[in-house]
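Hi support team,

I submitted a single chain yesterday and got back a structure, but I'm not sure I'm reading the token output correctly. Could someone confirm the output below corresponds to the sequence I sent? I've pasted both exactly as they appear in my results page.

Thanks,
R.
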Amino acid sequence: MPLTATIEIPADQADAQAFQVILRITNQGDEKVTLLNPDMGVPSPDMNWPFSKEVYQAAMLISFGYLAMSVTDVAGKELPQEPIQTWATPVLQPPCELGPGDSIELTIPLGSFYQLASGTTYLVALTYGDHNLKVSARTSVPVP
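Hi R., thanks for writing in. Yes, this is the structure output for that exact sequence:
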């Protein structure tokens, strides 16, 4: 498969509850690749959504099976995922088309979905996509 996925850690994060990673999906092939567009829109003002747009997007992707994630501690125990319900139906945007060398980024607010401890390293696994095409990445992530 020409797509690769990597997990990146943005600099200057100091709060475990607001900790984020970036899932970067890159087309390493020589031809255009079409995949699910991660843009799930924004919450309706009527929802009084208490979280960020990134939490909304991740929660929507999770609830419809387009994003799966797991966080495991050093002892090998998987942390429970906090359910965040959007009570909304996504409006699917046209698929993304990635040309050779192109990439997209998804910001994943891990601290909103897991109780992370500062000074701890976790194994993070992310899978993104639909029934046509999925990509996965996993890496060790130190939480400051």
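A quick pointer for reading it: Residues 74 and 122 are 6 Å apart (CA to CA). Let us know if anything else looks off.

Best,
Support desk
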